[in-house]
């Protein structure tokens, strides 16, 4: 005797998996947001921008060369 899984059962399993994935994503988004709120670097970035001197730094890579 061969047992078959009904479409309703498959749909229910797929829905449960989707709910779990959505919850994981929501948890990750919330964690990322909270970490970003706790570590606001706006003032440091603005200070670096004010002190940046292009003439002094123009001959140096600012990122990996292959990304330039």
Overview of this structure, please?
Helix content is 68%, strand content 0%. It contains three helices and no strands. With 68 residues, it is mainly alpha-helical. The longest helix has 32 residues, at 7-38. It is elongated.
Keywords for this entry:
68 residues, 0% strand
Quick structural summary:
With 68 residues, this protein is mainly alpha-helical. Helix content is 68%, strand content 0%. It has three helices and no strands.
What topology emerges from the helices and strands here?
Blueprint: H1 7-38, H2 42-51, H3 54-57
Termini gap: 64 Å
Instruction: Give the strand content.
Output: under 5%
Task: Label the structural class.
Answer: mainly alpha
Number of strands: 0
Question: DSSP helix count?
Answer: 3
Largest sheet: none
Write down the secondary-structure element order. Answer: HHH
Overall mean pLDDT score?
86
Q: Spans of 5+ residues with little confidence (pLDDT < 50)?
A: none
Percent helix range: 55-70%
Overall body shape: elongated
Radius of gyration over C-alpha positions, nearest whole angstrom: 25 Å
């Amino acid at each position: 005797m061969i047992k078959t899984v009904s479409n309703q059962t498959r749909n229910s399993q797929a829905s449960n998996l989707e709910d779990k994935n959505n919850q994981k994503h929501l948890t990750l988004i919330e964690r990322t947001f909270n970490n970003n709120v706790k570590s606001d670097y706006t003032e440091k970035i603005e200070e670096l921008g004010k002190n940046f001197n292009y003439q002094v730094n123009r001959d140096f890579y600012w990122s990996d060369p292959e990304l330039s």
